[in-house]
């Protein structure tokens, strides 16, 4: 074997030697441990497996009551875990007892007190039992009480004035241990119990039933206890002299109310209650008991009513805890008295702590769950010493958690539970084992060490185990946790990595913790702030762990010095709407407290309310709360650094009150000749104001006194019985709580049956059935069988077309009328009626009837829809809609009851409707930057038209209405001092977003205008902020904008830059660069680039190659298209020049040598009405564009004449815009109506004349647009006249008059058609009414129109007359029906436009037309003069 050993390679021999040495050291170390198990007497079955001890209490001290100077013994005994007895010591009120002559310990460990002294011996006792090498156990606490009797009574009898035969009750109470014995005296004589007269109770109550004259006198009680006696004051029982009140009846009144009581589980308790009150029948009130609003069931035997009305409960149980109501009731009224019964229960274990084995460096949890009333307080002890909540020892509710076990954590742990009625304890034995020690019993979730040891971890080959993990860093660091990340080992070994172990400990501490993970990161929790820790990570494969650890030393962040939680928070209800909250300042304020925040909410709600309280206050009264509602409260203290830790929430309920609403769904039903059934539902939940304990039902006959009955709180119906036959009763009901009754319902009336009706057989046939016919309905009436003695609960109505009972309807017994609708005219129907009860349906009565014939009126002439629909955008949320109603005639005056319905909707939304009684409608509440479609119809009575043609328009933009969303800071890879902000656009942009503003600062308390701002143009949704300061918290927010302004600012987010630009300061492993590639560091960038080839392939990626090819193909295609376009355009220009050259003298464009641009002066001007067609320029007929289109055509310009809209003369840009966008009815091609004439024309608001263009500037011909008049809006046919295009208000004339017009000669080879001069009209001008500027369709962006009617096939549009140079004049427009235009006053809302009532407008318009014709004749004559 030795020779084989030396034949191995040196490194193999070294590894094997190290392995053997390691195994020997482990075995020796385990054997040499001064094993707590051995020292404590833990027996090992095979010398290596430890066992738990059976060290427990056999006998513990119990609570006792003794008289002064008497002797007492307290016992204590434990089981023996070894041969020798453990040591026992006694503790009194937390201090160990030193033996003396009066108090000493017996040989068996019991404590003996020879003479008990109240001042020195009363209190709590415990025995402490210690076994060497194991630990110490403490017993439960036992109370030693010395008998005593208070000097004064807490409750004494009071004077009582009652009537004869009433009940009298007195009560005494005095504090003492044991409970004093109370006796009663009358006039100095001892009262002896007599079942029918006097009855005394140990609780100190005297009850006197059926009081007679001999019972009146003086009463007092005596209490005996603790060898002493006390006498109460004297109470007088006397006769009430007001006898006349008895004859009128008295409502119940209590002589003794039940008191709140606390009693131990298993004991007996009596709740006392007595009441008097005579009703009209001289009866005493009846006493009933309810628990939580429900009548008590006495069938179980534990609960019973004794005496006059006292409730006795035997063998008290926890379920008996609750609110008990004593209800005294007579026919006049009822009264309630409540008492709270609290069932006390000592602590008992639900889950006891168990003995446990655990490996060191692991975390364990010792469970302990208890119950009791009041709720027990749980504490933990180790070896008799209390454990406080520390970093490594944490109290989680009633359980104990120990983090990072060490060998010194071995020992006995006790769970103590204590409340006001008792204490209990249970012990757990914790044995801590080394990592390589197997557990005696395989755990349900074995640790990684246990699994690896069994699979051969310590016996594997060193060359097959992995190396340590690489690149261990703290990816995220906080105050109380660190997130670690690492990479796989450089040499993972022949198998894959199956897991990792993470170990950490505070620097300088031996308590090391461990966790296992299968990922390459771990989140280490429960760390201390600003504390340095050592972290080690080891990798595992199937051959074992790595030989080395990856090591990191890292410090957690400094915790902000904010206050700890406030102490002793309490909340107590003060009234039905207020709660008082008190607390104590934090134990560790970490500076001066600046204020407190009281945070509260109603249990069940989601919204929290916050109240700021001054720093000097430690109490607050919260007002305005809901009645009988649970509220949750917590307190947060603030100092200069901000808010501190919050207290735990506490819950308090406001006091109850009377209901503030009456019961709901209150109905009555007659059930017989002597009973009426009452049904109801409780008041709304928010109006109950407490637990409903009952309902008061008040009923009375007409003109008589009423009676009252009270039901349980859980009842929803009640039967009033013993009523008179054939009598009408009035009934109402109210709800009540412990505080009293709420408002009552209205009176309802119901009449009892005349006789007791029989329900042993179905009802008889109804007496009569009457049916009256209409065109599409039947009126059915029936009469019940008045002589029948059979009960009827309802009726069944059947009908059908020719066949009965095809359709059936059920009615109540008091319904005798019904309308059957939706029938067919002139049809035969069979109607039946029958009564029913619980035995079934009776015999039916039939009736056959024919519905009337239909007499439909002749359909009226269909109404035509409105025409000329226009829209004017007022703002981002308002649009004005106007239209013309052709059925109103020319004056458009509404004289009947018609109205108009406007339908409008945005894309893919439901339409909305707006009614208007005029020809205009203001549509408000629209969304900004949204296209809406509008249509109008006429409604006149039952007649209505179809919808008009649709018109669309878009509202103006508005500033963004919401904040940008999802603002997220993202670190920049490779640049730790930069951060990229990403966000989403606002949910309500209200238009095109043109940019964003990014705000950031390091002080979030600054005003917004003091933050640093950076702009983002366009619709970019990210922004990189650079050159930040390291280890600094930055706050960011963003604001969107559009052309209308800025929107609201988003919520603030924060980002903290790392401390230094190193790998360990990146928030996570994905953001940590491999090399420094920050801007400006060229050398490092090159290094990173050169180093990339080791990890990834070089060259151009496939995606980049695809992008380059796509770009090349696109550019090539654009170049080809441009070349083809240029060639075609040049060819077309050459063809047009050739055509003009070939035109010769027929062309209106003269050659260079021509000096005359018109016909000779002696030529006869043509008549405008006859020869107007030869006057048209011949070139107009050769233009390829149709003259009937609605867009304005213009001739082509040469290179000198072609200009953008920006280079036009002032005012021409507006003209050009209107020319392009105008439609029928715009301002340039105006066709007015009577409304147009009433509105003033628009004016140019210019403070100076427009600038003159250059002298040589040429103008293109502006071809006027012909007027298109729809068929349904045209005047009656008449003889054809010349069609002219009027230029309203001189707009076009003023624009063109400023241009230089050649006069000496014609334009030579310019390709421009000269305009004919237009002379101003000086006659027959119609003055316009002055007023605000008028806005016509051409002044605004016109909506797109959806034509619904084609042009008339019987009338062609007349080609327009070409115009030459124009001078300003006042034009007149040809009249046609159109929607009224709108006059806008800037900055004000446009009111509804009122129509003129003038009837002379037609005459004025004809005069204007005549003047227009004369002007046109003058223009024609001038055209023949050069």
Automatic annotation (TrEMBL):
<feature type="domain" description="Fibronectin type-III">
    <location>
        <begin position="565"/>
        <end position="657"/>
    </location>
</feature>
<feature type="domain" description="Ig-like">
    <location>
        <begin position="347"/>
        <end position="431"/>
    </location>
</feature>
<feature type="domain" description="Fibronectin type-III">
    <location>
        <begin position="762"/>
        <end position="858"/>
    </location>
</feature>
<keyword id="KW-1003">Cell membrane</keyword>
<dbReference type="InterPro" id="IPR003598">
    <property type="entry name" value="Ig_sub2"/>
</dbReference>
<feature type="domain" description="Fibronectin type-III">
    <location>
        <begin position="865"/>
        <end position="958"/>
    </location>
</feature>
<dbReference type="InterPro" id="IPR013783">
    <property type="entry name" value="Ig-like_fold"/>
</dbReference>
<keyword id="KW-0325">Glycoprotein</keyword>
<comment type="similarity">
    <text>Belongs to the immunoglobulin superfamily. DCC family.</text>
</comment>
<dbReference type="Pfam" id="PF06583">
    <property type="entry name" value="Neogenin_C"/>
</dbReference>
<feature type="domain" description="Ig-like">
    <location>
        <begin position="50"/>
        <end position="143"/>
    </location>
</feature>
<feature type="region of interest" description="Disordered">
    <location>
        <begin position="1134"/>
        <end position="1169"/>
    </location>
</feature>
<feature type="region of interest" description="Disordered">
    <location>
        <begin position="1335"/>
        <end position="1371"/>
    </location>
</feature>
<dbReference type="InterPro" id="IPR007110">
    <property type="entry name" value="Ig-like_dom"/>
</dbReference>
<feature type="domain" description="Fibronectin type-III">
    <location>
        <begin position="963"/>
        <end position="1060"/>
    </location>
</feature>
<dbReference type="InterPro" id="IPR010560">
    <property type="entry name" value="Neogenin_C"/>
</dbReference>
<dbReference type="Pfam" id="PF07679">
    <property type="entry name" value="I-set"/>
</dbReference>
<feature type="region of interest" description="Disordered">
    <location>
        <begin position="1064"/>
        <end position="1097"/>
    </location>
</feature>
<dbReference type="InterPro" id="IPR003599">
    <property type="entry name" value="Ig_sub"/>
</dbReference>
<keyword id="KW-0472">Membrane</keyword>
<keyword id="KW-0393">Immunoglobulin domain</keyword>
<keyword id="KW-0677">Repeat</keyword>
<feature type="domain" description="Fibronectin type-III">
    <location>
        <begin position="465"/>
        <end position="559"/>
    </location>
</feature>
<feature type="compositionally biased region" description="Polar residues">
    <location>
        <begin position="1187"/>
        <end position="1196"/>
    </location>
</feature>
<dbReference type="InterPro" id="IPR036179">
    <property type="entry name" value="Ig-like_dom_sf"/>
</dbReference>
<dbReference type="InterPro" id="IPR013098">
    <property type="entry name" value="Ig_I-set"/>
</dbReference>
<feature type="domain" description="Fibronectin type-III">
    <location>
        <begin position="662"/>
        <end position="755"/>
    </location>
</feature>
<dbReference type="Pfam" id="PF13927">
    <property type="entry name" value="Ig_3"/>
</dbReference>
<feature type="region of interest" description="Disordered">
    <location>
        <begin position="1229"/>
        <end position="1259"/>
    </location>
</feature>
<feature type="region of interest" description="Disordered">
    <location>
        <begin position="1182"/>
        <end position="1213"/>
    </location>
</feature>
<dbReference type="GO" id="GO:0005886">
    <property type="term" value="C:plasma membrane"/>
</dbReference>
<dbReference type="Pfam" id="PF00041">
    <property type="entry name" value="fn3"/>
</dbReference>
<keyword id="KW-1133">Transmembrane helix</keyword>
<feature type="domain" description="Ig-like">
    <location>
        <begin position="252"/>
        <end position="342"/>
    </location>
</feature>
<keyword id="KW-0732">Signal</keyword>
<keyword id="KW-0812">Transmembrane</keyword>
<protein>
    <recommendedName>
        <fullName>Neogenin</fullName>
    </recommendedName>
</protein>
<keyword id="KW-1015">Disulfide bond</keyword>
<dbReference type="InterPro" id="IPR036116">
    <property type="entry name" value="FN3_sf"/>
</dbReference>
<dbReference type="InterPro" id="IPR003961">
    <property type="entry name" value="FN3_dom"/>
</dbReference>
<feature type="compositionally biased region" description="Polar residues">
    <location>
        <begin position="1339"/>
        <end position="1352"/>
    </location>
</feature>
<feature type="transmembrane region" description="Helical">
    <location>
        <begin position="1104"/>
        <end position="1129"/>
    </location>
</feature>
